[in-house]
Amino acid sequence: MRVLAAMSGGVDSAVAAARAVEAGHDVTGVHLALSAKPGTLRTGARGCCTVEDSRDARRAADILGIPFYVWDFAERFTEEVVESFVGEYAAGRTPNPCMTCNEKIKFEALLEKAMGLGFDAVATGHYARLSVVDGTPLLRRSRDTGKDQSYVLASLTPEQLRHAMFPLGDSWKSEVRAEADERDLAVAQKPDSHDICFIPDGDTKKFLDSRLGERPGNLVDAESGAVLGEHTGVHGFTVGQRKGLGIDAPAPDGRPRYVLSLEPVSGDVKVGNADHLGVTDIDATRPIWPSEQPLPAPTECRAQIRAHGDTVGATAEVTESGVSVRLAEPMEGVAPGQSVVLYSPEDEGDLVLGSAVISATR
């Protein structure tokens, strides 16, 4: 097969490309330039799309003996990922930009261009297992559950998964680094990237303030309705947040307060104690089913709402607007804008059944 290897400049994508070559595929490496000003992306251990990363990717491609290109996706990245991120926070939701990047950039824009150039598949260094049985994609957790990235890949469509390759799915991270050493890849011990690549200093609130400006509102006690303070914008908060609320006086019972809900129209940020954080019912929209078949109703499953969060038992049912999920036990910090990913309770709970974007909780 003709395979386009997405090479971020890290050890995972370099080894994934190497394995695609070793498997006998005709491999071409590509690095995605995602910023018109690379200095605005994180660098060193905290980056994934910088100039130094593109150089690391090129050196790895040279060692593997494969053609290598840098493709400029900066404009589309800004529109699909950065502006979407800002808009979601302005609307009082909590997005996952890495999930959006996988969906809109790596497996929509990149795959679209790859297919147009005659490639059969795109290979990445994600930790997830993928197989296609009778034309049906089966996306599963990786063998190394600590590095598993099936959650952030769960928004991919069946057609995208049919043209995807995840060569690291059956490996442990330690094995990948050891293999990179054996292949003399300079990135063998390069630290993993983390956090949000387009926020250079890691200060999300400051970044959002620079884009959205001040949008004053009140901090309101969810039970009494009393105004406890003021804030400069709902985009500075997320459900479940405890620190940085800006409330001078402690709660009457001495217990810490948490953000319970955000109301962008009125500007109210509702706060209360931890007893009110638990969520048992989730409504979600834009469901995606890897098998192309919606869940039979109702379906027993395991639900996960964060990339590396725990799962809980749940019952999911398709609705007119998307999917409804009832959790067997309360989960905290569940916010609109996050994605709920559903896993099969069988097979050690590693098979992705589907995903959807949370619109409301109760």
TrEMBL record:
Stated role = Catalyzes the 2-thiolation of uridine at the wobble position (U34) of tRNA, leading to the formation of s(2)U34.
Q: Which SUPFAM superfamilies match?
A: Adenine nucleotide alpha hydrolases-like
Q: What residues does the record give for site: Interaction with tRNA? A: H126, Q338
Localization terms from the record:
Cytoplasm
One molecular function GO term is: ATP binding
Q: Which UniProt keywords apply?
A: ATP-binding, Cytoplasm, Disulfide bond, Nucleotide-binding, RNA-binding, Transferase, tRNA processing, tRNA-binding
Keyword hit for Phosphoprotein: no
Domain named tRNA-specific 2-thiouridylase MnmA-like C-terminal: which ranges?
282-358
Q: Where is the tRNA-specific 2-thiouridylase MnmA-like central domain?
A: 205-272
Residues at which ATP binds: A6, M7, S8, G9, G10, V11, D12, S13, L32, G125
Any one Pfam family match given in the protein's UniProt record, by short name: tRNA_Me_trans
This chain is encoded by the gene named: mnmA
Q: Does the keyword Cell membrane apply?
A: no
As for family, the record states: Belongs to the MnmA/TRMU family.
Q: Name one GO biological process term.
A: tRNA wobble position uridine thiolation
Please give the residue ranges the record annotates as the region Interaction with tRNA: 147-149
Record organism: Halosaccharopolyspora lacisalsi
The record lists the catalysed reaction(s) as: S-sulfanyl-L-cysteinyl-[protein] + uridine(34) in tRNA + AH2 + ATP = 2-thiouridine(34) in tRNA + L-cysteinyl-[protein] + A + AMP + diphosphate + H(+)
CDD domains to which the protein is assigned, alphabetical = MnmA_TRMU-like
Per the UniProt record, which EC number(s) apply here? 2.8.1.13
Domain of life, source organism: Bacteria
Q: Which HAMAP family match?
A: tRNA_thiouridyl_MnmA
Q: What is this protein called?
A: tRNA-specific 2-thiouridylase MnmA
Instruction: Give the active-site positions.
Output: C101 (nucleophile), C197 (cysteine persulfide intermediate)
Q: Which InterPro entries match?
A: MnmA-like, MnmA-like_C, MnmA-like_central, MnmA-like_central_sf, Rossmann-like_a/b/a_fold
Cellular component (GO) terms are: cytoplasm
